[in-house]
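Posting for a labmate who doesn't have an account.
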Amino acid sequence: MLNPRRIPIVTAIGGMLTAGIIIALILHHQATIHLMFELIPLVEWIPAILIIIIVLVSCHLLDHIVLTLARETLITAPDYVSFEKASTTS
């Protein structure tokens, strides 16, 4: 079973990795556009910046949802574990 103290760390790392991968894909796409048109106006970067902000906010909200579910699971886990021990010993 996962240590309750490590749950925020695990979910934060997962959220950061997800956001990092998505941001890297967006920046790679922007670099491809830059190479295709050979100039990069600021207007072209505005959608990418907005997408990055949306991704970071989404990961933050997902982190909160995962933490809430983890806390609920940890609250009900001792009953489930004791039930499993009782059912396997009998």
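Reply:
Got it, the structure tokens are right above this. The mean pLDDT is 67.
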